[in-house]
Amino acid sequence: MILPLGLIVDQSLSLLGVISFADGYQWLPLWLALLWGHFTLTLNHSLSWMSRYHFGIQGALGAVFGALSYVGGIKLGALNSALSLTSVFLIFAVVWAVILPLAVHLNGRMGQRLGEQHV
Length: 119
Description:
The chain is mainly alpha-helical. It has helices at residues 2-15, 30-46, 55-75, 85-114; strands spanning 20-21, 79-80. It has a domain at 51-119. The chain has four helices and two strands. It has a two-stranded antiparallel sheet.
């Protein structure tokens, strides 16, 4: 559930002109789809500790670090944007303030369904 959500969000932001891809493609490049796949597959291990915290803290961490990852992508030349870095940061901060708590919640629910123990 997290993988399609991430792909849809990034593709939507691309179509809205918030970001574009350095290779000139209008559709998500393979590397970004693979990053979302990696995030989805490792969420249970890399960010399971977040499930202990209130969704507000999860959202704040997502807002800062999720947005910084896209700003970093722009600075490294993998992404482009006609908007200022501040605008890009603020847009992705809002997006990731929702995505990260939602991903942690969905991961926890999936773990409960599968009978896994989450620490």
